[in-house]
Design a protein that fits this description.
Layout (H helix, E strand, L loop, with lengths): L3 E4 L3 H8 L10 E4 L4 E6 L8 E7 L17 E3 L10 H6 L1 E6 L1 E8 L2 E9 L5 E11 L5 E11 L10 E3 L7 H5 L6 H6 L7 E5 L26
Parallel strand pairs: 4-10, 5-10
Antiparallel strand pairs: 1-2, 1-7, 3-4, 3-6, 6-9, 7-8, 8-12, 9-10, 10-11
The protein binds 4 DNA strands through β5 and β7.
EC number: 3.4.-.-
Family: Belongs to the SOS response-associated peptidase family.
Organism: Planktothrix tepida PCC 9214
Length: 227
DNA sequence: CCAGACGTTGTT
DNA sequence: GTCTGG
DNA sequence: CCAGACGTTGTT
DNA sequence: GTCTGG
């Protein structure tokens, strides 16, 4: 699955990689946890241009009575996303790119867990396959939230964990964002991508969701040589 | 018909 | 909102 | 994902 | 054990 990730690259790198004109200032996020505000790109039906959009991580479907459901909907399995009531509408017309440049997975080692950090070999930022929703709270205020699609782990990630987030190829960003593309077979064909990943163990400081320092993504000194 | 769920992961 | 279960 | 709370009454 | 918060 994907329960933590990072976005620490420059505004310039984001503007270039995702072809958006204006990227607002934001603080580097070494340790992004569910419920936090995250950077995304979406394309609305009314808007022709893709736009940078901040969202809350944890999908709150438009029909939800309570925003707490968002804590459970941080991931959507690609194998079932077109069937599940919570995701069925969003997969058709409310897809987004969730901006990241690395992600964490935890490996169970007996009683303890060891976090690992994954990134692209070229260190470039990338887009997770995401879905978004609008939700109005009881005071009528709009909340925009999102979830990350997951798939079976590839060869690299499987050494640590059974599931991994879906990283889209830059060549399909436009189609993924196009809300008029509603054919589920075509949509699901877009997620076929298996980029080479670099992985190393990191400090368990990252376990604490409020810890947001550069050493989150540094290789652990006493590296566990199992990979 | 109404009521209740709507999710993933990991562990047992 | 929409589907499933009773 | 992991960490941390999980409760009420009454008094300060 | 289960839920909430980050």
């Amino acid at each position: 699955m994907c329960g933590r990730f990072s976005l620490v690259c420059s505004k310039t790198a984001i503007a270039q990689t995702f072809n958006v004109s204006s990227v607002p200032d934001f603080i580097p996020q070494y340790n992004i946890a569910p419920a936090q505000t995250i950077a995304t790109i979406r394309q609305d039906l009314e808007q022709q241009e893709r736009q940078f959009q901040l969202m809350h991580w944890g999908l709150i479907p438009h029909w939800a009575k309570d925003e707490k459901i968002g804590y459970k909907l941080i991931n959507a399995r690609v194998e079932t996303v077109t069937e599940k009531p919570a995701f069925r509408q969003a997969i058709r017309s409310q897809r987004c790119l969730i901006l990241a440049d690395g992600f964490y997975e935890w490996q169970h080692q007996g009683k303890t867990k060891q976090p690992y950090y994954f990134q692209l070999e070229n260190h470039q930022p990338f887009g997770f396959a995401g879905l978004w929703e609008r939700w109005n709270n009881p005071n009528g205020e709009e909340n925009v939230s999102c979830t990350i699609l997951t798939q079976a782990a590839n060869e690299t990630v499987r050494l640590v964990h059974e599931r991994m987030p879906i990283i889209l190829s830059p060549t399909v960003y436009s189609q993924w964002l196009d809300p008029t593309l509603k054919d589920s077979e075509t949509i699901l064909s877009l997620v076929q991508h298996n980029p080479n990943l670099r992985v190393y163990p990191v400090s368990s400081k990252v376990n604490r969701a409020t810890y947001n320092q550069p050493d989150c993504i540094l290789p652990l000194d006493e590296a566990v040589e199992i990979l």
